[in-house]
Amino acid sequence: MQTMKRKWWVVIAVVLLAVPLRAQGRALTVTGIRGVTFGAVLPGVPRVVLRTDPANSGQIDIRGPKGPVLLTFVLPVAMTGPGGALMPISFGAGDAGFSATQAIGSQVGFDPKQPFTATVPNNGRASVFVGATANPTTNQRAGAYTATLILTVTVL
Fold it and tell me: pTM of this prediction?
């Protein structure tokens, strides 16, 4: 008897509004660079993507005035797939990270479920990295799944 493996290709789309704002003479822009990518997900087996994963973590770049900013996420609880199928997704206490150098290896971790205050450096550039966990059910429908997370950046 041949066992068939079903795989899912899952991507979280990072949708961000890059609305330029003027503060301290420099416009604020927030740009999604890449979404969290789960790749092949097997039924009943959670798939974890760490915020430090250079290939699969999400990355959002911030350009704006130097100084403090408040980072606030709106996070999905599920991804939507074929025929409206849902796959639960979760975010842990360390699944987001702020990097004043825009380097994935130089992050301060934080809980994306809580507002986080960070400091944009003098060059006006920083990045936020995001990881997550896909939690497929044992009878999860095969196919591509997506969800949207929103990051709001407020200049303080």
Answer: 0.85
